[in-house]
Amino acid sequence: MEGSTVCGFELIREAVNRESSELVLVEELKAQAKSLGFSRIGIAAANPSAHIDFYKYWIDAGMQGEMQYLAREESVRRRSDIEETLPGARSVIVVAHDYLTEDLDCSSGDAAMAVIARYARGYDYHDIIKNKLLVLLEWLSQRVPGALEGRAYVDTGPILERDLAQQAGLGWFGKNTMLIDPSSGSFFFLGLLLIDLELSADLPFVEDRCGSCRSCLDACPTGALLGRDAVGAPVMDARRCISYLTIEHRSAIPVEFRTAIGNRIYGCDICQEVCPWNERFAEPTGELAYRAREDLDGPLLVDLADTLLSTDEVGFRETFKKSAIKRAKRSGLLRNVCVALGNWGAPVAVPTLLRALSDVEPLVRGHAAWALGQIGSISALSALSTKLVAEEDAWVRTEISAALETQRAPRTEQES
Ligand code: B12
Ligand code: SF4
Ligand code: SF4
After folding, report:
1. Closest CA to ligand 1's atom 61
2. Active centre residues (catalytic)
3. Residue 260: what pLDDT?
4. 242 lines ligand 2 (CB under 6 A)
5. Atom 40 (ligand 1) nearest CA
6. Which pLDDT value is given to residue 1?
7. How far is it, in rounded angstroms, from Cα 412 to Cα 416?
8. Domain termination residue (choose one: 269, 299, 329)
9. Same domain for 350 and 366?
10. Is the domain of 241 the same as that of 198?
11. pLDDT of residue 105
């Protein structure tokens, strides 16, 4: 009897020791993450997602548009359960890396300038965050007995990153679908470490702090944000989102959205910029790697178009190899710049657009035609008429005809 009591105390003591040393480890882990530059860190249990049905509904409704990688059967299965990605996964370490930098020329609202979304003005965040996560994983593996299995993810794997971040207590889902931290807003990236070690999880962030605000819904120029559904999930029709249209959408930008895109040539920040949580709490990051590259700090649209027109795909990849912008590819970025030039509407852009009208890529020629139609000067329209005869691509011919059609009464060069 006495022996079994001693044995019971021993077991309790062991459990208490284990728990307190685990708590110390978690505290040290969090401190280590901060020293690597992550502003916040939380831990979620590697449980199957409670929100996968919403995800499936979203895919079934086709709201992912051309982002087929989101809809593949394997990708949906892996999103539903982390075990599918890392067998034996027990915990997910979720980190936030702030990327807001001081406002620069590119935020000026000058229609002659290109606006690039804030997240893509500096070095590619995938590389920056992944390297830091691997350092954190190495640090952790040296502090636990035995082998530690882990995988680092930043935006690239079939993981519901925001869902896990909410589980790890990092913030709530705003009506703009962003994960928002009550102390700093939403201008942060997420990074995840999946590990086969059980760590005590943080409490999920369960509150919805949007309240009755609807600033993002009202500000979205394309009506992509549809509000919350019956159970509170924020719904976005990505097919309407400028970020999708300028980055992920590979084909022609539907005509109905071209004007609303304005001079945003890569991504969009409007629904974050109007959010009161960002207006009040977002601070510039200390991460130097996210400072805008000189050539991405509000370049003139004409200069950017001329540079891209003089570059081939290989040159484009070289120029943007350390930037997230490479994702759009040369043709996608030029397509976007043509749309922005059309929205600017200044005849001074015509010579550049005439070059684009002869580009090797039909995607570029078609959007250049649209832009020339928007400018509608005599030289623009006469170039379009000439090109209509020579153009071999059927879709580009349709764009040229539509551009000529919209301009029944040509303006003189001075008028616009
Ligand atoms: C595809 C994608 C996009 C698409 C679609 C965006 C979208 N809203 O779905 C497009 C190209 C439009 C896009 C744009 C942007 N993106 Co993006 N994108 C992704 C990606 C790869 C997948 C997102 C996804 O699965 N969407 C499908 C929807 C259904 O899933 P979800 O957004 O996770 O939504 C969940 C909720 O609805 C929730 N849910 C379900 N039921 C319920 C019920 C309740 C009550 C609640 C509260 C929630 C809830 O669960 C859903 C999953 O089912 C993630 C990385 C990743 N792997 O997660 C980055 C990611 C979301 N993007 C990011 C960023 C930075 C951007 C941009 C800001 C870039 C820019 N400036 O242009 C914009 C923001 C636009 C916006 N308002 O969302 C960050 C967001 C960080 C943050 N603080 O939230 C991520 C996490 C990348 C990263 N690692 O940092 N993106
Ligand atoms: S990123 Fe821009 S287009 Fe997309 S939902 Fe937000 S405001 Fe609308
Ligand atoms: S703008 Fe308002 S509704 Fe939209 S995410 Fe921010 S707080 Fe929520």
Report:
1. 162
2. 155
3. 98
4. yes
5. 51
6. 44
7. 8
8. 299
9. yes
10. yes
11. 53
In 3D space, the residue among 220, 227, 216 whose CA is nearest the CA of residue 242 turns out to be 220
Residue 227 has what pLDDT?
Answer: 98
Shared domain for 371 and 386, answered yes or no, is: yes
Low-confidence stretches of the chain (pLDDT < 50) are 1-2, 409-410, 412-416
The amino acid that residue 357 corresponds to is L
Residue that terminates a domain, selected from 299, 327, 346: 299
Of 353, 391, 386, 359, give the one whose Cα is nearest residue 372: 353
pLDDT digit string, tens, across residues 281-309: 999 999 999 999 999 988 999 999 999 99
Structure tokens at 114: 């290109």
Cα 113 to Cα 153: distance, rounded to the nearest angstrom: 34
Q: How far is the CA of 26 from the centre of ligand 1 (A)?
A: 27
In this structure, is the dihedral angle defined by the CA atoms of residues 313, 157, 153 and 289, taken in order, positive or negative? positive
> What is the per-residue pLDDT across 220-249, written as a single tens digit (0 to 9) for each?
999 999 999 999 999 999 999 999 999 999
Q: Which atom of ligand 2 is nearest to the CA of 240?
A: 3
Whether the CB of 181 sits within 6 Å of ligand 1:
no
Q: How many distinct structural domains can be found in the chain?
A: 2
Residue nearest to atom 35 of ligand 1 (CA): 163
Q: What's the confidence (pLDDT) of residue 11?
A: 67
Rounded Cα–Cα distance for residues 28 and 20 (Å): 12
For residue 178, how far is its CA from the centre of ligand 1 (angstroms)? 6
Average pLDDT, the chain: 93
d(CA 319, CA 217) in angstroms, rounded, equals 36
Q: For ligand 2, say whether the CB of 268 is within 6 Å of any of its atoms.
A: yes
Nearest-atom index, ligand 3, CA of 217: 4
Ligand 3 pocket residue status of 190, Cβ below 6 Å = no
- Domain range for 412: 300-416
- Residue the block writes with tokens 């079939």: 158
